[in-house]
Amino acid sequence: MLPDPGACPSRAKGGGPGCAPARFRRRMPASASLAGAGLLLAFLGALGCAGRAPGLSMAEGDTLISVDYEVFGKVQGVFFRKYTQAEGKKLGLVGWVQNTDQGTVQGQLQGPISKVRHMQEWLETRGSPKSHIDKANFNNEKVILKLDYSDFQIVK
């Protein structure tokens, strides 16, 4: 709950140092206080400094990010997309994965930064049991305020 902006925190009755007497204090509308708090939370969240307001993130205090990826090596014909989807869902991420005409697998991950980092490591080092990963590239990483997808899809 937000503190009452018209209240003096140091003394309940007579005010304290820096507190104006009640007759000189102006009441701020609650809607203005809440709007200011929402803007502050969004700004601090974008900087990675604070928790997010309800409905904006999947995990308390974990900044949401989006990142594109492409994985090179023996990653087609080895159930790589299916395992990628399963790992993403297990971590609570959203996004998509697809094969490319160049023999790679590409996609996008979205979710809390700690979970996305875990998935990036999985894409670089594990993959599906029969895959052989040469390298993984990650591009266009950015902080987001809300998720663009509702689940993790295999795109055909």
In short:
This protein is an alpha+beta fold and 156 residues long.
Question: Can you walk me through this structure?
Answer:
There is one protein chain. The longest helix is centred in the first third of the chain and has 18 residues, at 30-47. It is built from 3 helices and 5 strands. The termini are far apart. 28% of the residues lie in helices and 26% in strands. Helix 2 (80-91) packs antiparallel against helix 3. It has helices at 30-47, 80-91, 113-125; strands spanning 64-74, 94-99, 105-112, 132-143, 152-155. With 156 residues, the protein is of the alpha+beta class. The chain has a 5-stranded mixed sheet with strand order 4-1-3-2-5, with helices on one face. The protein has a domain at 64-154: Alpha-Beta Plaits, CATH 3.30.70. Strand 2 (94-99) and strand 3 (105-112) form a beta hairpin.
| Name of the top-level CATH class of the domain at 64-154 | Alpha Beta
- The parts where pLDDT drops under 50 for at least 5 residues are 1-16, 30-41, 49-60
Which range best describes the helical content: under 10%, 10-25%, 25-40%, 40-55%, 55-70% or over 70%? 25-40%
Biggest pleated-sheet summary: 5 strands, mixed
Share in β-strands: 25-35%
| Total strand segments | 5
The Rg value, from CA coordinates, equals 23 Å
Q: Could you say which overall geometry the principal axes of the C-alpha atoms support?
A: globular
Pfam family, one: Acylphosphatase
Enzyme class: hydrolase
Domain Acylphosphatase-like: 66-156
Family: Belongs to the acylphosphatase family.
